[in-house]
Amino acid sequence: MAKRRNLELMVGTFVALGLVALFFLAMHVSNLSLNTSGEGYLLQARFANVGSLKVRAPVTMAGVRIGRVDSVRFDKDTYEAVVSLRIDATIDSIPDDTFANIFTSGLLGEQYIGLEPGGSTEMLRDGDEIVHTQSALVLEQMIGQFLFQKAGESG
Amino acid sequence: MLDPLARLGRRVLEALERLGRGHLLLLAILLGLGEVLRRPRLLWEQMFNIGVLSLLIVGVSGLFVGMVLALQGYYVLSQFGAAESLGVMVTASLVRELGPVVTALLVAGRAGSALTAEIGLMKATEQLSGLEMMAVDPVRRILVPRFLGGVLSMPLLAAIFSAVGVLGGYFVGVGLLGVDEGAYWSQMQAKIDFDEDLVNGMLKSLAFGVVVTWIALFQGYDTVPTSEGVSRSTTRSVVQAALVVLGLDFVLTALMFGD
């Protein structure tokens, strides 16, 4: 009887392990995942164009990661992208005239948000909005502008 | 003069006969699948033999395959400044290809050979005939639970392999090589599709489960009932399963990810 129970226990563990692995793959690896870590505080920033900025992309200041992108959504009234940033709770001294840029790591790398602190003495708090933003540089647009300028010079 | 031709003909006919017997056996197994509902305990025993006992080798292999993928992938990707895509590369390789295929090869070696040897010995020692004498159908009693156990265990093992591999890649990529943790997961989550990648990988694994167990069972059931015959069948079971899995993988990949 005890032997049979052992067998059932082992098989049960095996099946449970397999299902956990499947669940992990589904929720943590594939695009089904909707996980957001609940630590830190949220800031909003509006961009005319976010390029290919992804949820969970790093938010950096002076090149050091201080948070992550929490969500990216579209504001249908202003036609802007609203990005919410989750900043580590320990970084509580971001001035309210901070500048938010979307940068690309490397020529074809992942996009991230770089914050440049301003000089204000007022600090941003949970739910506040970063007013000064600059959109992502879209490579095609830059090439287009470059060609347009060249054409203007030669003509 | 005509002897070589006749030999060739005999070879082909024998192969065709074996193929036919194999399919008849599969049909008999599929028709008998209801039997496990009456005796679920037989299925648990086989899931233990095939699934639980393969856990160690599958888990350890998955871990190391994931870690090696991260090392090799990082080396190439960092040359293009795309080391952030390491997570996508590791996961896509694991979930789409390496998880199902390597698991199938490991199970064929670890459990398939054991199945063949077990059933071959049962035949050699006339236990199967004994069952028939007692009016117990050996296909339903012996083969069906083993078949179902193998088919059900395979996708679970492949999922464990892939999950452990992704974690292994994470340890090496993020812990050792300094890839950004958020980039590792976020790029992965952005690029790995649930239906396209995960479900297709699991379907592949299910197909491999059917093929590997079927070949193992047939080789055992169809063995020449001597010790030499059993040993030969065991070898053949592993070799054939490996070849068929790799060939089938190409076909399934072309069908699933072709367009």
From TrEMBL, chain A:
Keywords: Membrane, Transmembrane, Transmembrane helix. It comes from the Bacteria. The keyword Transmembrane helix applies. The chain crosses the membrane at residues 7-27. InterPro entries: ABC_MlaD, Mce/MlaD, MlaD_Phospholipid_Transporter. GO terms for molecular function: phospholipid binding; phospholipid transporter activity. It holds the Pfam family MlaD. The keyword Membrane applies. Residues 40-118 form the Mce/MlaD domain. This is Outer membrane lipid asymmetry maintenance protein MlaD. It comes from Allochromatium palmeri.
